[in-house]
Automatic annotation (TrEMBL):
Molecular-function annotations in GO: alcohol dehydrogenase (NAD+) activity; zinc ion binding
Keyword terms of this UniProt record: Metal-binding, NAD, Oxidoreductase, Zinc
Organism per entry: Cellulomonas biazotea
EC number(s) from the headed UniProt entry: 1.1.1.1
Protein name: Alcohol dehydrogenase
Top EC category: oxidoreductase
Catalytic activities: a secondary alcohol + NAD(+) = a ketone + NADH + H(+); a primary alcohol + NAD(+) = an aldehyde + NADH + H(+)
Cofactors, names only: Zn(2+)
Similarity comment text for this entry: Belongs to the zinc-containing alcohol dehydrogenase family.
Pfam families: ADH_N (PF08240), ADH_zinc_N (PF00107)
Lineage, top ranks: Bacteria, Bacillati, Actinomycetota, Actinomycetes, Micrococcales
PANTHER family xrefs: ALCOHOL DEHYDROGENASE 1-RELATED (PTHR42940), VACUOLAR PROTEIN SORTING-ASSOCIATED PROTEIN 11 (PTHR42940:SF8)
Domain Enoyl reductase (ER): from-to ranges: 8-335
Amino acid sequence: MLAAVVRSFTEDLEITEVPVPTPGPHEALVRVEFTGVCHTDLHAARGDWPVQPALPFVPGHEGVGTVVEVGDEVTRVAVGDRVGNAWLASACGECEYCATGWETLCPRQRNSGYSVDGSFAQYMLVDSRYCPLVPPGVDPAAAAPILCAGVTVYKGLKTTDTQPGDWVLVSGVGGLGHLAVQYAVAMGRRVVALDVDDAKLDLALKHGAEVGVNAATVDDPVAQVRDLTGGVHGALVTAVNGVAFPQAVGALRRGGTVSLVGLPPEQFPLDIFTTVLNGLTVRGSIVGTRADMTEALDFFARGKVGPTFTVRPLGAVNEVLDDLTHGRVDGRVVLDLQHT
Ligand code: NAD
Ligand code: ZN
Ligand code: ZN
């Protein structure tokens, strides 16, 4: 099969023939139709984070395809089912987090396209106990971005602890952010979008944001967001630049919550006095559980959210990563694995 392989953190991915893997216990072999390209794949391929993936590896954690073979002890999926992979490839099922609905925090979890090979390949293995089940009748290319971008922003929005009618700031309107706008609107929130590119703000308005603020062209983006909303009740930061993080904290009204989702390899200063006196909450949010995934896919299957995306062949993966690096992607790029 063809796969896009990361061999070093400084070179392009190599598109090359590799053996089709064999499913072990609990695993299913999936013929991949489409996979989204997440900015996390770029961080992985560049070795951006403190824990780097072992080389060589195959990125990709928004893969959609059909089960073609199952290993021993597989009961949840069967040959012919449409399934996906996800960042949460598997978890231990036994620890305090797995036992309390926080499998996303399992210290023994495995991650697709990072610690196990991902979906930038014509076939992939998934753990049948954890893989997303793609609802029948949906466009498989459009379903792909839901498997990471969709579930992550849906869960992240839940963790802002906002209510219908509340203002939510979506900072960064890329693959994650353009879906965040849609989930927030579907959940009854009012959305103000922040980005550094007018085309991204247009996309946010198209998907239901009430107002957009360009952080690169206005003098004081925080004051602008506060003026427009009276201060937001919640904020979701998906931006890939550290400067967006203290801005989102600054845009909160008293008692507000910011959910940090973007993962630029940077730090930001948190003003102790304002955080304490205004009772602010700053928390991280990482993807979503299997239950969150089912809910996120259900919003999509019912037509409440729908990614903006462009389909490209697997052979274009390095160009796509370059486009992501330079902020040139509108919504998501989805790779077609079978027409390369
Ligand atoms: P993307 O490249 O599609 O989108 C990033 C957006 O941020 C772009 O629209 C860009 O214009 C915008 N941006 C850049 N600088 C900005 C600034 N200063 N202010 C506001 N916006 C700015 O990336 P993506 O695929 O949406 O991923 C976004 C981030 O989320 C990445 O760091 C990725 O690793 C991370 N991520 C986290 C999780 C999680 O579970 N926490 C899951 C998936 C992705
Ligand atoms: Zn992702
Ligand atoms: Zn666990």
